[in-house]
Design a protein that fits this description.
- With about 400 residues, the chain is of the alpha+beta class.
- The protein contains 12 helices and 19 strands.
- It has an 8-stranded antiparallel sheet, sandwiched between helices.
- The longest helix is centred in the middle third of the chain and has 18 residues.
- The termini are far apart.
Length: about 400
């Protein structure tokens, strides 16, 4: 008798999420995709497609029951990670605790959790959408400057403002920008963390049976001309000293233990403060965006997309043990500094030999927007270098070496 094909529910069918759908099919699973966008590319890869919002928990649960799924995966999606945990917990499928995922996915809850459980954390205050700017500015005046105002349930650095002088006018503008990307109606006012290490530590980890088995720590590239808030790539190795990396690893494992996280890929953003103390910006309950899992799979030789799919289906057979690498590699997020039409891409001759893969999201002749959030990326360039010195030399000024030409 032929064994019945098992089904997996995939929440989100964007360009970056298609790899998870294709991987699930390759592993022999029946793929059920939900995405509210009518033009998402994932629908053309999945076996079954529902044009439904992945943030509608009850509708996703209804679909999961109707399709008899054996696992749920929100690959590289913060908003859908909550839904995935909710559906899986309701159906008794593999998941991390819903309460832990809610804490990680909601910035004001995360800040409060860190402070309440003894983790280093900046002073932070939740602020309801619609709050009086004068009152918020008064709170900010008693905090260490500068301060940050951001949505608490958004990702990709959308709606984030750093204020050196948080007067009422500046606060009002920042509140308006953050409110645009807020779904839950709660914003966050917090102190800006001054860094001793010059780059934000990013990358992904993979947890198996409560222990971090895959250490994919890198550091983030930023475009300071656009404010420096949105990552424009990741470089490996991170550049941390041995002592700094040990402190970062210890904090990550301690947080995994504290939250009771059992398995899966998590996206890391950490600032190493002036006293070499690691401060969590985020520990996202999902694989990283900007194709970080693909980058780390290239570096490690371990297929993290497959590991994600298998973990969601309760299969931990794939060995993901990885302790980092000294190989010099990076990704670069192609982006536009202004709105217009993509005319092409200029690539400097000295960096062209380092590019081994290019994934374009926008083709010449198509409209582009100014890069102020990860969703406005034009493509991803994957690069390898001879050594760290070679990498650092070419990454210095990368925005001029790989440049979107906008007309």
């Amino acid at each position: 008798m032929e064994r019945e094909q098992r089904s997996i529910l995939l929440l989100g069918g964007s360009r970056q999420q298609v790899v998870a759908i294709e991987c699930a099919k390759r592993l022999g699973y029946r793929t059920i995709l939900c995405d509210y966008l009518p033009d998402n590319p994932g629908q053309f890869a999945a076996d079954v497609f529902y044009q439904e919002s992945t943030t509608d928990r009850d509708r996703m649960l209804e679909i999961a029951r109707a399709e008899g799924v054996s696992g749920v995966l929100a690959y590289a999606s913060d908003p859908a990670a909550l839904t995935a945990a909710y559906v899986a917990e309701a159906l008794g499928l593999p998941t991390n605790p819903l309460a832990a995922v809610e804490t990680l996915s909601t910035k004001h809850l995360f800040r409060a959790y860190l402070a309440d459980h003894g983790f280093p954390a900046p002073a932070a205050h939740p602020v309801p959408v619609g709050s009086d700017a004068d009152e918020v500015a008064k709170i900010a005046s008693h905090m260490r400057q500068p301060v940050v105002i951001k949505p608490t349930d958004s990702s990709g650095s959308k709606g984030v403002s750093v204020l050196d002088h948080p007067d009422a006018d500046a606060v009002w503008d920042a509140l308006e920008a953050a409110a645009t990307f807020s779904r839950n109606g709660v914003l966050l006012l917090e102190e800006y963390i001054r860094a001793a290490f010059p780059r934000v530590i990013g990358g992904d980890i993979f947890v198996v049976d409560g222990m971090v088995r895959f250490w994919g720590l890198m550091s983030c590239l930023r475009d300071e001309s656009l404010g420096g808030l949105v990552p424009i790539g990741e470089r490996c190795p991170s550049g941390l000293s041995c002592a700094q990396e040990r402190a970062v690893r210890d904090q990550i494992q301690a947080l995994v233990d504290s939250l009771g996280l059992r398995f899966g890929e998590f996206n890391v953003e950490i600032i190493v403060g002036e006293d070499d103390t690691p401060y969590f910006l985020e520990l996202g309950a999902r694989a990283g965006g900007n194709m970080i899992p693909v980058q780390l799979s290239d570096i490690s030789g371990i297929d993290l997309i497959e590991a994600n799919v298998r973990a969601a289906m309760g299969d931990a057979a794939l060995d993901v043990a990885f302790d980092g690498s000294d190989a010099a590699a990076a990704t670069y997020v192609l982006h536009a500094d202004r709105a217009g039409t993509l005319a092409g891409v200029d690539i400097a001759p000295e960096i062209a030999p380092c590019i081994y893969r290019t994934v374009m999201y926008v083709e010449p002749g198509q409209p582009v927007e100014r890069f102020d959030g990860a969703g406005k990326a034009l493509g991803i360039f994957f690069l390898r270098f001879d050594d760290v010195a070679h990498m650092e030399r070419l990454l210095d000024g990368i925005t001029a070496r790989i440049r979107a030409v906008v007309s």
